[in-house]
Amino acid sequence: MKPSSLVLRGALAAIALASACGISAVQAADTYAQTRYPIVLVHGMSGFDAIGPVNYFYGVPDTLRASGAVVFTPAVSAFNSNEQRGEQLLATLRQLKAAYGYSKFNLIGHSQGGTTSRYVAAVAPELVASVTTVGTPHQGSKVADVVADVTGATGSTGLVASIATALGQAISWISGNPTLPQNAMGTLGSLNTAGAQSFNASFPQGAPTSPCGQGPEVANGIRYYSVGGTAAVTNLLDVTDGFLGLTSAVFLGEANDGLVSRCSSHWGLVLRDDYPWNHLDEVNQAFGLRGWFTPDPVQFYRSQANRLKLMGL
Fold it and tell me: What is the distance between the alpha carbons of residues 177 and 180, in angstroms, rounded to a whole number?
């Protein structure tokens, strides 16, 4: 028998076997991140859902979807209190439930997006399966404390708040969400130490049981997880690193990501608190630039989705 005939017969046999076993392109699709409940990525202060093709969680939503996840990236106020942002997020979740029938959601929040997510979990626990916070200042940020102190001492609080509020309005307009209310003083009051303490007293679910410790993994039927970074300047080509290098100085040697200390990032079960990322690396910004040989933030989110999947969430 000719070699060409053998090849042809082998190919036909493989096709027949695949058909018999029901193998198809759909069945072979990537399901690594296919969670039971949709994933909702919640942006932080001065953030947005997407500006043109650029998502706040740079490159993350598309990668998760390619791995089988259902992902939403709602927009909330760039500058506002945890409670106001939380009410906006809650309204979006209720709309998604009404439109698609989803019963619960896995919330993954970066920075203030973490406390925004915690608010929703506290006031509407029936809608939330899990909350994972990334670089969230649960105990407040020393940077916010310094801003409050300096502007208060110089009498420039109103001016700075007006500028930040205007910036938030510009961000919302550019990202296609011009009606979102902006309130920079609300943000400052949520992110400084005093504001964080007040918020935690009202919404303690998942709170650490000791200083710089961790809290319960499950509170009120919801699973809580946290992740943090401990680098400030990670890539000299990233124009945002200079700013984070300056803000990192206010922590006086305490491990931090440029805006949030390692201990402040703790909430619920601490998965890891020393990723070699700064505050923007945590969401793969700016534009994917990060330190050489550091973990890929996009793959980090993909692995978090797989973790939730394996837990039946």
Answer: 6
